[in-house]
Write a structure and sequence with these properties.
345 residues; alpha/beta; Rossmann fold; 2 domains; seven-stranded mixed β-sheet; six-stranded parallel β-sheet; disordered N terminus
Amino acid sequence: MGRWAAASARGGRIPWPDPVHRRTFVALIGSAFAALLAALAQARAKPARIGFLVPTSRKGYAPRIEGFRAALRELGYVEGKNLAIEYRSLDDDRYERLPELAAQLVALKVDALVTGGTPATLALKRATSTIPIVMGSISDPVATGVVPSLARPGGNITGSMFFVAELGVKRLEMLSQALPRMKRVAVLMNADNVSMVPVEREMRPAAKQLGLEMQRHNVRSPGDFDSAFAAMAAGGAEALVIVEDAMLNANARRLGAAATAKRLVSIGAPDVALGGGAFAYGVDQVEMFRRAAHYIDKILKGAKPADLPIERVTKFELMVNMRTVKALGIALPQTVLVRAERVIE
């Protein structure tokens, strides 16, 4: 039995090691403590890594990306210091490539993932069940099987959403008010977006109730736009509803201008009116991606996506491009004009 153990057994005081051993002991403890501090400092200094799956081109999604980045900066995240963002984008607008890009981001073992829209979110969901996923913007995620509940999303997915079907019905109603004699309305949808199914299911009976013949036109990329507009003209469409979709949103200004050139009264996301279309009625998606930054902040600080309810955006704004309205010869009822939050003169 050593002299320490023996002293303890006899109930005596345990002697302190001799000076040489004491210095060695203190040095070892000091080295271990210094190593621990260095490890903790390195862990704190390691930048958070965010994967951003852009469901269209970087250029087309730029306002949303910049809104997200700006909000992160306000929260104290500085790219190149304590934050790194890895991007993967669809420069060819082919949704079938989303699973490949999702797998690339997951392989990087990022701390969290951000995206928008149903196709991209589903691609990430299939690629990982562990890395947190924040939806900057999406249509009804319950109807498309992304999450089981808005209040209790469970799993690794949370974020913000709005009901695109509800928005589509409102757009039909507004067109009907602006054009009381209208009989045929075209609806432009991305055939590769599964969220179009519940949207069409809500819009068709609403159009019938308004006395409108609703004509669905499918596109998959900007290369399909010309043939879609030709089909609208052949079908005698008088107006056009552009349904929310990442690819369509990225080309909203082009679509608004094209619709006006074809003498179609268009309504869609804000960029439709800003590009020369007649009306816009929708949500501020840049603000939605700013909210995504707050979700990311909570997750990086330890919150679990399963415990963060999905926010439903309920604020919709009407924009009227009066230049286009006048050019198309529309006698806009005052009841529509007074509801506009913004009028482009």
